[in-house]
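Human: I wish I could look at a protein chain and see how it folds. This is the protein in question:
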Amino acid sequence: MSEHTNRSAVVLLSGGLDSMVTAAIAHEQGYRLNALTIDYNQRHRRELESATTIAKSLGAERHVVLPLDLRAFGGSALTDDIPVPKTGVGSDIPVTYVPARNLVFLSLTLAWAEALGARDIFIGVNALDYSGYPDCRPEFIEGFQNLARLATKVGSDGGNFTVHAPLQFLGKAAIVDEAYRLGLDPAASWSCYDPTPDGFACGLCDSCRLRLEGFERAGREDPLHYA
């Protein structure tokens, strides 16, 4: 039996492949799952359905879908009327970057964790095969963990929060392999930033390209349906 059995954790669950694998790792380690999904009025709202499916399949004790309309700010192809790039993953931070998204989302995750009495937070960020978002870097995760101590009553009382990022240094192929090792169905997850009107993944946005390359390098076929 895991040493973490009967300990609660809050998992930031977007509905993507990385967040699904991260939640399953937390479950495997014996944590009682509380899943937080942010409905930020994103272009790819299809991922919200996936998050609900994943939370149920992993036996989450609670799954909160929290509305937070970031279209009021805009500034991203995911929250504004800006075309999603389809030309390939570049070296610059793409327009699909949502300003400070993981900082905002982790702050909400931290708030719920403190309210629950949980001390463990899981997030599926990755710093190898990704689009170069600054809020996916190890420095950000380390910095937020320090901030969590300074910003909370738990920290003031001498306690700590641990931010787990188990996929931080895994490539997409290794993440795909982890999904199958954990007995997950990757078809339950959603990655595409710009779904077609008939509900297919576009296959050309950064997120689709990274996912497809990961499956190819892992020698597996992605069960998701592409346009």
